[in-house]
Amino acid sequence: MLSFLDAVKRILVGRPFRTERLKQAPLRKRLALPVFAASGLSSIAYAPDEVMLTLALAGVTAMAISPQVGLVIMVVMFVIIASYRQSVKAYPSGRGDYEIASVNLGPKAGTTVAAALLVDFVLTVAVSLSSASHYVIAAFPALAGMQAWIATAGVVILTLLNLRGRGRSRLANAAPVYLFIGALLLMLALGGIFAAMGTLGQAPSAGFEVIPDPAYPDGLTGVAGLLLVLRAFSTGSAALTGVEVPISNVHTLAEPKARNAATLLLMLGLIAAVLTLGTMYLARAVNVHVVEDPATGLSLDGGPVPAGYIQDPVLGQLAHAIFGGESVGFFAIMLLTVAVLLVASHTAFNSFPNLASNLATDGYLPRQLRTRGDRLGFSNGILSLAFAAIALIWVFNAHVPTLIQLYVVGVFVSFTLSQLGMIKHWGRELAMTPDKRPRARIQRSRLLNMVGFVLTAAVLAIVLGTRLIHGAWLAVLGIVVLYALMDSLHRHYVAVDEELAIDTGQSPTALPARVHALVLVSTVRKPVLRAVAFARASRPSKLDAIVVDADSEQTEASVAEWERLGIPVPITVLASPYREISAPLIEYIRSIKRDSPRDLIVVYIPEYVVGRWWEQLVHNQTAVRIKNRLHYEPGVVVASVPWRLSSSDSAAYGGSTEQASPGHKTISAVPPVSNAKD
Amino acid sequence: MLSFLDAVKRILVGRPFRTERLKQAPLRKRLALPVFAASGLSSIAYAPDEVMLTLALAGVTAMAISPQVGLVIMVVMFVIIASYRQSVKAYPSGRGDYEIASVNLGPKAGTTVAAALLVDFVLTVAVSLSSASHYVIAAFPALAGMQAWIATAGVVILTLLNLRGRGRSRLANAAPVYLFIGALLLMLALGGIFAAMGTLGQAPSAGFEVIPDPAYPDGLTGVAGLLLVLRAFSTGSAALTGVEVPISNVHTLAEPKARNAATLLLMLGLIAAVLTLGTMYLARAVNVHVVEDPATGLSLDGGPVPAGYIQDPVLGQLAHAIFGGESVGFFAIMLLTVAVLLVASHTAFNSFPNLASNLATDGYLPRQLRTRGDRLGFSNGILSLAFAAIALIWVFNAHVPTLIQLYVVGVFVSFTLSQLGMIKHWGRELAMTPDKRPRARIQRSRLLNMVGFVLTAAVLAIVLGTRLIHGAWLAVLGIVVLYALMDSLHRHYVAVDEELAIDTGQSPTALPARVHALVLVSTVRKPVLRAVAFARASRPSKLDAIVVDADSEQTEASVAEWERLGIPVPITVLASPYREISAPLIEYIRSIKRDSPRDLIVVYIPEYVVGRWWEQLVHNQTAVRIKNRLHYEPGVVVASVPWRLSSSDSAAYGGSTEQASPGHKTISAVPPVSNAKD
């Protein structure tokens, strides 16, 4: 059974890698740019849509201001990028906002940032792949309705790729992003030229009328209108996620790391701004009409839209208008968008396990998340991310307009705390800098972070204010729960560390006075004889065989057999009026302890090793229960003496040690301080 | 957590009983009769209904022959009773048909009988309590639709009563059965008198017309009609279940056990015959019209029956006709029927765990079924029965006409094999008896069992022929699966016994040459120091501390700390290029074994004992995995050195040993044959 699962694992994941393979050549800028930018750029696949369909609630004229909303978002982005360019120089370790918040604002803020980022990475995967599934459906309408399956398939593929780990070429990540940027620039340029020539086509949805929501009778006027614009802005802020990627991955860059990261940030910002704004202006020019639910939000000549109408994403409608519906250009744009969304999810598959591993090292998450798997990836982190993302995809049926409500909360919590941390950072620097010139530079830096703080805090307030009831509460809840979990786990680890620390006065060479060995006997068969032999070999000060009299017939038979065989160990029968095994045994051990408190008691328990899972159900149940119970008794060591039933031969872990053989090398690191034989 | 569950258990089940309490006064006949008869008599609650509604498929005139069908069933019953009266004298151990089949026909037949009876006991509970739920609804129509819940509540109540075990008064079982017999006799007598006076009322359903099934256009004529009569007969055979109860419980009777059991069998038969036939004749007289589905099978003045019409069982309709609808008599009959059905299920709750325990002792079921619980009942058997019965109740929504199709198969498999076994038994007796007189007696006995065999085999054939597709296949499947399970488990136990038996030539005093102890070190903290101290206390021939280098930073820190503390044990670092712990360790152990094959290797593993369930998730994962893997290595003993974290204090099993204290008494049964200290 095990070897079969092992074989499946080998096929899916590949042969294990040696630890030395961790060392990897640093990333050069031209390969780093696409990887670092994918997350930020991929939002062009959904952010313009979300801005437009939010504004569409107030009617088609309201949709016309979407490019202006996009412009404001880009301004915010540049402020954040400018401040991150400073941060990455001050904290070039790759531990990112988590480190900035921890160091400057204390562990509570650090934990909050970490919780927020973990939630955000999960949402990056869920939103990107849900969006990708709609691009797949736009290209292949026959798949309509399968969006959750498609997105799940994406998660599974990425999970396997990441479990396979460091085998992949970096080019495979870089190429689609460059192609996407190129294709989008080409499309926007063509669109611009057509528009100038007056030959620009119309979007497939241009002919539909947008039915305004009854809640917005006067378009964007009044408080309701203002709130709607703010909601569109906060939804569109999804375009800002991914800006934190360079600072979280700066350690993988070629030297000079920090300067390269700063350059990459700027390039990312410029490309994102051109593509996002170009898309939004062009979408207005070709009259893209998108709404949350086409069946109720759109009409055609006063009647409903045709049955089975599938609303393509904005990029799809642009490609349709510029290249034509079934054209190569259309399919290329669709395909490349899906590829970029996959690369963006892939960066989350890198960031999440990385952050989780950092948190595990600091004792905020279970230690298992620190372990590198066969292929050197943090397998447990990768699997946790995959499960969480798949759960979200199915709960929301891969519906981007709903998922997007949860998004952004996490990243803006982290932005805001990071800005605050940097303000503190500069304040400290200032206190340590007497010279005038450097002081002026530091003050300028601090001012930038102050502007950044006000801006990101304002966006966070807008996001929470306009979207809390639309779904953001779930993200907030996730962050709070994760925070509580990490905090209590950390307290636990700290408490255990203190409890287990070796006291300065403690002599590491103190020994228990005497060893009193007990062999637990049920039926007198080979395993018991072996347990007795092993117990005798350990030369205890005192050795007893113990039978607990839970079944008088069996007890008598065992004692008789013991005498018949002439085993040179005294046997003691413990009365058990309530047919229990553990209670009389523990009572007996306690009575020994009362008489000689400094004795060490070793209980030898014969145990079966079985090969089939159901055999475990019919053997050892009592042994396991007794062992668990004896663990609670102070001063007792439980020694399992295994007896391998013949059925266990096939299940033995024979093959797996071969694997280790080539690398096995025993080195005696420390010479014996004294001889152990005393 | 544990102490809370313990408290709940104490409230539900009560304080544990001492083993001595098992000895119980034997049952006298007048208390045994009701208990032994309940199962047989309780079928009056549903068997007449099933006969009538099966015949109703061929129309109302076909229903008129139901008393004749009942008469044939009673004839079969008396043959079976007569043969059981012989069997119980030959096999008075209380192991019943299982023993008769095992001894005379071999273990395969015995296992078949056991599997059949286990299935049948589950069905007894499911059918009886489903039927009881309909009586409850007849008395309280507001509960209509809740039948599965009511039946489940019955199972839960009986389970708790049986887990509480021997505390109950036998009178509580006996009284309702006597009252039921009395009340039914009174009702039948009154009905007879009213009929003679011509003042007998009509059943509530007398006014309805029965709509014949289109499959039976000519009533009971032809082959279809004959098959329907046979089906009615086989369904009505449910009245025969319960005849096996006396032979399965003969050991609880007062002396002379076998003769008392035979007398009880006869009395049971007479009472059952009078009540069953009386009920069926009277039901015809008051024109009870019952069908499987009143909505399609009944009509009123050519139209459908009123909406919400609840079809009362036959006994209910009789009570209605004789005592009146809302009368005390009606409610008394309903209540007593429910009580008798509960007592009948209760006998199954006795028989199933008893048989399961016998099977476990013989190695056909897991040993856990042999363990007596706190209150001396076979708790695991009781719980298994309860789960199986509840599953059946919910799968069939407590619908008796469907459940009854599964019933009877098991009991007739066991009847038939038991008769065959008795024929063999008499054959053997005959071979050993030379005298003429006793030979004639034996031949008469054998003839009776031959008649019984032909009859029960014929009924089994009819049951399988007419009901296999109606649901009996599920019971057959259950028997086959259970047989396969018991058979393979038995093979396993036999194989293990052979494997573990101590060879005659084997010296029980052979000792391993030397002991080589290894202490597994991860971080150097208190638990490791304790493990080292314990290992040194056991004075091994050789002692090594082992660090597996899965994480180079941690390894260096551990080795440095080891040196700093001056622990007088050499430390060995094992290389682990694939970051595994077990594989390098096992490779190292194998290399030791290669050098000195007769050495015993003891691996000391420091282990945390934690108090909260989630702490188990974040500790010990590696220790548990290593232990499991080391169990497969021959010649290795794993010694767990527990370190109790402070959180484990509250969860320690402190209280439970007090319970054992009063009965605790250590007796040295065998004087030391030689001194263990060598």
From TrEMBL, chains A, B:
It is a multi-pass membrane protein. Residues 650-678 are annotated as: Disordered. Its main location: membrane. InterPro entries: AA/rel_permease1 (IPR002293), APC_K+_Transporter (IPR053153). Pfam families: AA_permease_2. The chain crosses the membrane at residues 31-47, 53-84, 105-129, 135-163, 175-200, 220-243, 264-283, 328-349, 376-396, 402-426, 447-464, 470-486. Gene3D superfamilies: Amino acid/polyamine transporter I. Residues 650-660 have a biased composition (Polar residues). It is found in: Membrane. This is Amino acid transporter. It comes from Paeniglutamicibacter kerguelensis.
